Amino acid sequence: MGVVMSEHDYWQVESSVYGGVGYAPATLEEYAAIAKALDDEAAGFAAIATAWESAALQLQSHRHSAPMCVTLQSGDPSAVVPGHVTAPYAALGNRCYDHATACQRLSDDLRGAADLLIRAHSLYSQAEMTARRMFTELLQAGTQAKPGYAAAGVAAVAAGGFLAGWTIDGKPNPAWMSTFTYPFQEGVLSGAGGIIGGVPIGKSIAHTDEVNKAAGKIANFSGPAKDVVQGNHLDVREVQANADVVRASGSVAESMENLRRLAEERLGKIELNSGLEYGTIAIQRYERSDGTNSWLVTIPGTDGQPDSPFGWAQNVELMSADQERRRKADSARMVAEAMRQAGIGKDEPVALIGHSQGGIVAATLASDWAEEYTIEHVVTAGSPVANHPIPQRTWVTSVEIDDELVAALDGAANPVTDNWLTVQGHVSPAPAATPSTVHSDGSCTPGATPITGLTPYDAAPVAGSTNGRELSHWIKYHQAAYQNATDLGSPAVQRHEAHFQEVINGELKETRYYQGRMTQSATIAPSERTTEFSTFGG
């Protein structure tokens, strides 16, 4: 069911779906044929609309063909001079325009239906991804060959976006810079990664992990530096919540809402009075009808606190192409230790959901802790995870916004496979509410807050968005993107949704919260904490 907009929803998200389909070629051809037929009919009605408009113009031309004829010029049959006869040109012209409007509306509806069919069934996703890869590779090669020109070009586009956004919002807003540069982000970033990682232009075309190789090199320096400043002793302990922050979940959408609640509560953006602080994750145990357990781990993103394992430097380590370097990232080992403390068994099914750095942690655990845990499904929101070596047996549902930048930091598009689904959202202004009108006869036309296009399924509103452009990396934008993909009725989304629900199927038995802190040495007495966890440098 579509989401009803409120008067405070200023932005909306329209989604496209890539991967996770697995249709037979014949089935795709059938859907493509239907979409083409709808589009052809739309073109036919558009031509009819043009013909009706042309007829209206011809009538107007006939009416003014005899400038000296008063009766013809008036266009009013009731004002006919004796002996003269005229057609009701004004009424005929209005009828022609009415027919033109109706035909054009029908054309738009048919074309909208074709577009929805294409988006819901990912009919041309393979061609789109191929074109995207070629464009990215060209930008990457150009960036490596002429880095100065590439930097200047992106800077110019960003500056243009900043000025345009200033005009639109009436105030300076850096968020518009990302909006204008998003088509170039992956290519330029992968090119920069190739330069830092020392990958020759010829060899880089066959790979997509240039950024990850560069991150590994940077982490060799940033990791030790971080240890000096922040310390490398990690304390992980269970903490109690005074409020119900992460609640029972039975779907990806509900889990994303819990992720938002935990992320914003620990950053102080909402007030649930839970007592939870930064560096906190949630682990839930669900009991199935056969008595076995399944688990859901909720992992928010970077909080940037000085002693948090979810600091900025950990992102670089998590993005490394080297497995050992990824395993040393404080946020990854903190979640792994919390999972151990929670008692998750090796053979018990686990689902992970994370935003931003939390999503990279989830992908890292699925990639590098595959022998310790049975991670069956990973959901990421705004996380650059395209190059993480996640096993084929693990299902991945990635939700990204095209202009958020963070998801593009890996310099590559996500893999397109049956078990890896990407929902990509595009942000646009939501239509303004129409006011209620009271007519002279006492009748009333109610106001409305429609979603543009054919149906409410064209786009989903971003709850609580502001009237100025925001950074689309906020979780609420990913929630809207997933909502729209669900509303489209995409079979690929339905398949992934069903798998996620199967993993966590059962009755919620407990929700436990774990907090991590980085120190130079053990500062918490063993009697005052649940577990002291120290590991190798990182």
Automatic annotation (TrEMBL):
GO terms for molecular function: hydrolase activity, acting on ester bonds. It comes from the Bacteria. Pfam families: PGAP1. Residues 344-392 form the GPI inositol-deacylase PGAP1-like alpha/beta domain. This is GPI inositol-deacylase PGAP1-like alpha/beta domain-containing protein. It comes from Bifidobacterium longum (strain NCC 2705).
